[in-house]
Amino acid sequence: MQTYAVCPRWSDAYLRCMDSVTHIVLGACIGEAMLGRNIGRKAMLWGAAAQSLPDIDFVAGFWMDLPHELLAHRGFTHSILFMLLAAPALGIWAERLHRPHDTSLKRFIAFFVVEVSAHLLLDACNNYGVGWFEPFSETRISFNCIYVADPFFTLVPCFAGLILLFRVAGRQKRIRWAMTGILWPLCYLAVSVANKVAVERSMMQQAVRQGISFHRHFTTPAPLNSWLWYLVLEDERGFRAGYRSVFDGDKPLELRYFPRNDSLLQAVHDHEEVMLLKKFSQGYYTIEKRADTLLFNDLRFGRILGWEVPGAGFVFHYYITHPADNDLIVQRGRFSGWNLQTPFRMWRRIRG
Question: Is the pTM for the entire model greater than 0.90?
Fold first, then answer.
């Protein structure tokens, strides 16, 4: 059967679009639930806008180089301080704009607190990391429990949002659809957390049985689902990485070893871009040499088709010695090599 590879540009567009759509539709459903009775369908518009507001930091990419942009994205605009500043300002604006009305300023402010906080919490659930405590701390929060663009999370609130926008009349029906759009992703997130706990418990048990020692680890979902997980276990010299399904049972861990290779950075270890990349990766990185090129691999974003290709490269790879080649950075390899058969092969791997 003929297969067709996924175009990198389309895969990059999918990730960016799905991430934005998730915030828009969830924000619209929250808007309908909290303010729909007071200001009608305008509540959905306010919700979609407020839920999208933290991503205004994308403009930083217009004048920053990539290492600085990586740390600027999901930085201050994804902080608790930003939420505390933005919510009252938006609340005052909305309250004045909709006069006359019978809705208190406190209710408007509470609405925007919920919307912006929901964005901050949702972004913290994937593996990029968010700066909740900036500018007071550079610590990035990453719960690593849901993929950045998971269709199982997004499609139901998207459908509910479209129904609310174009078809449903009557307050009770609108509330039911809005709550469907809110509760489905919450339930799916709970399932994903449960899957993470199960995978980590199984990983720990198998590591003990196989005599694998490590002092730090993380687990994060493989693309587009929450049943196949990517594992990284760190020791003194490097990392063991592999994939595990929630249905693997007592199957041994299948891990590939990647030395950190810090010695390759001797000539550039104090360069600003290298220091920024190390900070961004939270220490989960390896250095790789290809011909005359040094690659910085951030292990947190997984390997390209790693569950079926033993020697797969890493999704995030930064060319230290050829910085002009660093275009798509994180999204560059997420769907590289995918074709029409890939979801079926992934499903077979998920089944264990």
Answer: yes
